[in-house]
């Protein structure tokens, strides 16, 4: 009997030891959000009724990792409350795959991560997961990663339709070909990132498809000069636009933070009404909701190829174990001339947001924003600049970890 117990104990110990060398995780996310809008993304009219919608993101996240491989699978359902029948009888609302990738470690420092995955770099300006949007963003890409005392990533993607008899790509993605290299180096109080992105957009010309390539080159640096933290972005875009015009565009960000306050300026170049070149900077695949006001007037599926933006902002951010509070003030101006008759002032936006951390797996967030629009914004967005513009939200976020 003692021998049997000893054998069972050895088998159990072996299984536990093998399992300890691998990590499996299973988690979820339930995130309904109600939004109230009277001038979100575009100017409302004075007599326009406010709208209220509720959307929800539901996710199931699977993860596995050992010394040889790492995998990720994220199943996602995004819906607008009320747009699906109570008695569902079709597959139009089926769960989608937000991420499905495998990473193979050739050595502890060198790996290949291939499949559908989020690309998030630095402050999310060029590559971000757009986590605020319920659907978020992910890419079909192969990513080579090298990590020593520095990090070097090389990504490559080529997109096609299902028809193998031709080489025509009709979407739905924003690019047909993409290659990028990202370098990151850390020192004691300073970090430097460099990015080179080659973006190929498909364009039909005379019945044939051509790929117009644009290049984005630049980077981000952060450092600390006690007690002030400093950050700067500088990106240049060149190459060919889908319209065939030459691109010459610039993005500059300067930021200084002292304790809970941040003062910053961002310039995204634009195309004037009388320009022959394409001078409008495009932040491509970034988390744009994070940067130029929460009311999303600029670069959130809009304002692309326009007069650009100058954004002067002051931010206050406070957090403790239970609460977060944010107050952001933005002063917006066009970076290029709209017309001869309109000035460049676009408006001033105030964003207020708070979060209550109910427990380690639950948060409740509340936000309210208002925009004091300039007359020139009517030329870009329509609507009535004198009307009261506001947007608010109430969001519940529950993130259980079923297996860790």
TrEMBL record:
Keywords of the record: Signal
InterPro entries to which the protein is assigned, alphabetical: Alginate_Permeability_Chnl
Signal peptide feature range: 1-22
Protein name as it appears in the record: Alginate export domain-containing protein
Organism: Maribellus luteus
Organism ancestry: Bacteria, Pseudomonadati, Bacteroidota, Bacteroidia, Marinilabiliales
């Amino acid at each position: 009997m003692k021998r049997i117990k000893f054998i069972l104990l050895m088998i159990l110990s072996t299984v536990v030891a093998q399992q300890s060398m691998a990590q499996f995780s299973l988690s979820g996310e339930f995130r309904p959000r109600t939004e109230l809008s009277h001038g979100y993304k575009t100017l409302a009219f004075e007599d326009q009724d406010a709208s209220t919608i509720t959307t929800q993101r539901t996710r199931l996240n699977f993860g596995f990792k050992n010394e040889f491989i790492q995998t990720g699978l994220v199943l996602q359902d995004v819906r607008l409350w009320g747009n699906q029948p109570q008695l569902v009888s079709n597959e139009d609302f089926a769960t989608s795959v937000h991420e499905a990738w495998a990473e193979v470690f050739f050595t502890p420092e060198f790996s290949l991560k291939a499949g559908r995955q989020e690309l998030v770099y630095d402050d999310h300006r060029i590559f971000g997961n757009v986590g605020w949007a319920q659907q978020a963003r992910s890419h079909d890409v192969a990513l080579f990663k090298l990590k020593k005392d520095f990090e070097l990533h090389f990504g490559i993607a080529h997109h096609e339709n299902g028809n193998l008899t031709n080489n025509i790509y009709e979407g739905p993605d924003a690019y047909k070909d993409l290659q990028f290299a990202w370098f990151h180096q850390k020192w004691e109080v300073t970090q430097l990132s460099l990015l080179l992105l080659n973006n190929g957009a498909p364009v039909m010309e005379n019945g044939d498809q051509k790929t117009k390539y644009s290049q984005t080159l630049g980077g981000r640096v952060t450092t600390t000069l006690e007690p002030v933290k400093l950050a700067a972005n500088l990106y240049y875009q060149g190459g060919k636009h889908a319209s065939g015009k030459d691109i010459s565009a610039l993005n500059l960000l300067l930021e200084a933070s002292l304790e809970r306050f941040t003062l910053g300026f961002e310039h995204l170049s634009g195309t004037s009404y009388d320009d022959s070149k394409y001078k409008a900077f495009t932040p491509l695949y970034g988390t744009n909701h994070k940067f130029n006001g929460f009311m999303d007037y600029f670069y959130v599926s809009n304002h692309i190829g326009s007069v650009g933006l100058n954004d002067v902002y002051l931010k206050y951010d406070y957090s403790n174990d239970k609460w977060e509070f944010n107050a952001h003030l933005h002063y917006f101006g066009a970076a290029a001339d709209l017309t001869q008759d309109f000035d460049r002032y676009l408006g001033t936006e105030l964003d207020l947001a708070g979060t209550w951390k109910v427990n380690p797996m639950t948060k409740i967030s509340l936000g309210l924003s208002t925009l004091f629009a300039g007359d020139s914004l009517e030329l870009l967005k329509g609507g009535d600049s004198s009307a009261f513009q506001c947007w608010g939200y109430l969001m519940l976020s529950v993130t259980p970890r079923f297996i860790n």
